[in-house]
Design brief:
With 512 residues, the chain is mainly alpha-helical. It folds into two domains: 435 residues, Growth Hormone, Chain: A (Up-down Bundle), CATH 1.20.1250; 60 residues, no CATH class. The radius of gyration is 24 Å and the shape is elongated.
């Protein structure tokens, strides 16, 4: 495998890094932005989830748009949108401006998440395609790591003695720092070539051969040229692609497989955990500072197990990784549910007197009252203090009141992240880039990614409501049972695509 193709894969998938960075950053940002704008659970959910709703549109059209204009041109536009979103978010003066800025970012990462694996699959040799496409997921988890580390450092140096960082501006710096990788991504994209398979589709044969030779060298490029030309010839007599073609009987099986994996990746709650990581860790009562540092641990686990996935994906195959990972996800989420179900909450008068905010004395009438669930406890806190004061001090209040086995929750969350990082995270995108014939690839990946993003957005939108109305234990139990059922569905239908050319996969799975 040439250094050139590794470089191309890393550059193209930097959009994944920016997605991970944005997703990780927002978990810390909302600890400050929510009380500043006095947001309700619904408004908090919308600020967090609005990029995913925008990504739905981008995912639906970006694949087809890239078939017309080219993968590279759309990716350059994506990098520009990332930079614009970072600037607008940092200077947001209202709740409305903040979510509009994040919607722009959503358009960027929606397109990037579709186009990067598609592009990488189209330039990769079959025997290394899995690990090269998985670089997208590696960049995503590197983005999460960078974001959680950045949040931790900003929070650490936001002290009462600091004149530079304050509760009013620290979240703006958290968001604005994304501008740096966005500009690097924009510049680096000019160093990658156009997709050779796309050039063939546009009948730019000579340019495609030059690109293939640059990427693979003369010997391997000759083999790739033969494979592509044979596939193009087979497609010549077929009609133009329209959306209703995706419902053809011949495509039904691969469409169902893609939909199942695409839905399962998000409906098990991964983005709820990532986007609300700081808030989730606060629920265990470990405190605000420890919640930020736990986010760094979470993202470190993501990086480690993404490397595990890249090592195993072309050795073990796609199917074993997906099945083992999904079983682990179910077990981890159910462990979290069990841990939260045993939590109790009580503020003693001594604990209340130690709380360092002005309104804490209002809680004295609740001293020594014990709660066996988080819903009633948080409702009483909000009723007594008001929503804005509670949101600003929830970490300290929960730390003082919560009695539970926080270690079990941490193990469950880290287990979930680890299992996701070597299975549903990277393998879904690898599988989608392989399953569909080149003629339908852009449209089919776009449609499935649209549904994937819709599920993600809904999970993010309702997660604050779930925690508030259903409670921590029930929320994680629902996610765990969904993963449990998903395991058995995939056990029945998942094919294996390891080590096969894109054209060979088409011959085997597309029913004539």
């Amino acid at each position: 495998m040439s250094k050139k193709i590794i470089f191309i894969a890393f550059v193209v998938s930097l959009g994944g890094f920016l997605f991970g960075f944005d997703a990780g950053i927002i978990s810390g940002v909302m600890s400050y932005a929510s009380p500043e704008f006095n947001l309700t659970e619904g408004q908090t959910g919308w600020v967090v989830s609005s990029p995913s709703f925008a990504a739905m549109l981008a995912m639906l059209i970006s694949g087809r748009l890239s078939d017309i204009l080219g993968r590279k041109k759309i990716l350059i536009a994506v990098a520009f949108l990332y930079a614009l979103s970072a600037l607008m978010s940092a200077f947001a003066s209202s709740y409305e401006m903040l979510y509009i800025a994040r919607i722009i970012g959503g358009l960027a990462f929606g397109a990037a998440l579709v186009l990067a694996p598609m592009y990488i699959a189209e330039v990769s040799p079959a025997e290394n395609r899995g690990k090269l496409v998985a670089i997208q997921q590696l960049n995503i988890v590197f983005g999460f790591f960078a974001a959680f580390l950045s949040n931790y450092l900003f929070n650490k140096y936001n002290t009462p003695e600091s004149t530079f960082l304050t509760d009013d501006n620290v979240w703006r710096w958290m968001l604005g720092v994304e501008l740096i990788p966005a500009l690097l991504y924009f510049a680096a994209l000019f160093l990658v070539p156009k997709s050779p398979r796309w050039l063939y589709l546009k009948n730019k044969i000579d340019e495609a051969k030059i690109v293939l030779n640059q990427i693979h060298g003369p010997e391997r490029s000759a083999l790739e040229i033969t494979t592509i030309e044979n596939a193009i010839k087979a497609e010549k007599n077929k009609d133009k692609v329209i959306i209703k073609d995706l419902l053809k009987r011949s495509l039904r099986f691969i469409l169902v497989v893609g939909l199942v994996v695409g839905v399962l990746q998000q409906i098990t709650g991964i983005n709820a955990v990532y986007f609300y990581a700081t808030s989730i860790f606060k629920q265990t009562g470990i405190g605000t500072d420890a919640s930020f540092s736990s986010g760094v641990l979470l993202s470190t686990i993501s990086v480690i197990f993404t490397f595990v996935s890249m090592y195993l994906i072309d050795r073990m195959g796609r199917r074993p990784l997906l099945l083992i990972g999904t079983a682990g996800i179910a077990a981890s989420l159910l462990l979290c549910a069990y841990s939260f179900s045993g939590a109790t909450y009580k503020l003693t008068s001594d604990k209340i007197s130690q709380l360092q905010f002005e309104e804490s004395s209002q809680l004295m009438h609740l001293a020594d009252k014990e709660y066996d669930n988080d819903i009633d406890f948080k409702n009483d806190m909000k009723l007594t203090l008001g929503n804005q004061v509670y949101l600003k001090n929830d970490g300290a209040i929960l730390e003082a009141a919560t009695s539970m086995n926080a270690t079990l929750v941490l193990i469950g969350i880290l287990g979930f992240i680890a299992c996701f990082a070597f299975s549903l995270g990277p393998v879904m995108w690898v599988l989608l880039s392989e399953l569909f014939p080149i003629k339908y690839r852009g449209l089919m990946i776009g449609c499935i990614a649209f549904i994937n993003s819709f599920i993600s957005a809904m999970v993010q939108l309702i997660f604050p409501w779930e925690l508030s109305v259903l409670g921590n234990a029930t929320t994680f139990f629902i996610f765990g049972m969904i993963a449990f059922v998903g395991f058995f569905v995939m056990l029945k239908i998942l094919p294996e695509t390891k080590g096969k050319s894109l054209e060979q996969i088409e011959l085997e799975l597309v029913k004539n």
